[in-house]
Inverse folding.
């Protein structure tokens, strides 16, 4: 198993550009999520999905869209990039959709800079 | 509201010293899970431990140990005889009833030779 994979590893955007961060997992996990990591703030939940076709907002959803058409993929779309979205983005997954007991496993992260 | 506080932003120790990373949490749930993750300089997040709210036994794994105390809402992490390879940012996290992970701000540990 490759686990959780994310592409790209690094990205530089100009203000106003849009892009999609890719996340995939090959473990048949129901739950997938996106976090952003900013200095001094830990990781904050952007969006999550408890299964294919189901998505919901986390703590900081503004400026981001997600969809979950397959179990494997959970892309994160930046609609119109802003400097405040400069961050490191992590995708994570866990086995069961609606469970607070399962461990979440994280991808390697995408470092995004918005100029 | 659910909250995790890691009051120590940065800790610096010399190799072979013992070091404890503090984690205090707030939750209204009676059943919950606590986690520790390690983020080495390479940037990935590595799962270290999961503990449920009904199990207050301390856990030891090699040089790592965890002390869970419900009475003080704390889940502290101790590294014994620290090594340079332990240098990383460590995150404590709380899993609430809906399954969302709430992270603390992280503690950056620097172990100097």
């Amino acid at each position: 198993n490759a686990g959780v994979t994310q592409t790209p590893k690094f990205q530089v955007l100009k203000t106003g550009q849009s892009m999609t961060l890719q996340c995939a997992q090959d473990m048949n996990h129901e739950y997938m999520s996106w976090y952003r990591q900013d200095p001094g703030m830990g990781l904050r939940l952007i969006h999550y999905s408890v299964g294919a076709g189901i998505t919901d907002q986390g703590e900081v959803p503004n400026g981001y869209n997600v969809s979950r058409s397959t179990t494997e993929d959970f892309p994160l779309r930046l609609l119109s990039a802003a400097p405040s979205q400069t961050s490191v983005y992590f995708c994570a997954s866990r086995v069961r959709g609606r469970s607070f007991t399962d461990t979440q496993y994280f991808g390697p992260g995408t470092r995004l800079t918005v100029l | 509201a659910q909250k995790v506080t890691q009051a120590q932003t940065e800790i610096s120790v010399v190799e072979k010293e013992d070091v404890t990373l503090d984690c205090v949490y707030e939750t209204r749930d009676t059943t919950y899970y606590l986690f520790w993750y390690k983020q080495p300089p390479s940037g990935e997040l590595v799962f270290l431990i999961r503990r449920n709210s009904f199990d207050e036994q301390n856990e030891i794994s090699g040089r790592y140990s965890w002390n869970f105390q419900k009475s003080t809402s704390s889940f502290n992490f101790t590294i014994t005889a620290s090594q340079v390879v332990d240098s990383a940012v460590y995150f404590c996290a709380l899993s609430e009833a809906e399954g969302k992970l709430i992270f603390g701000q992280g503690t950056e540990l620097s172990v100097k030779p």
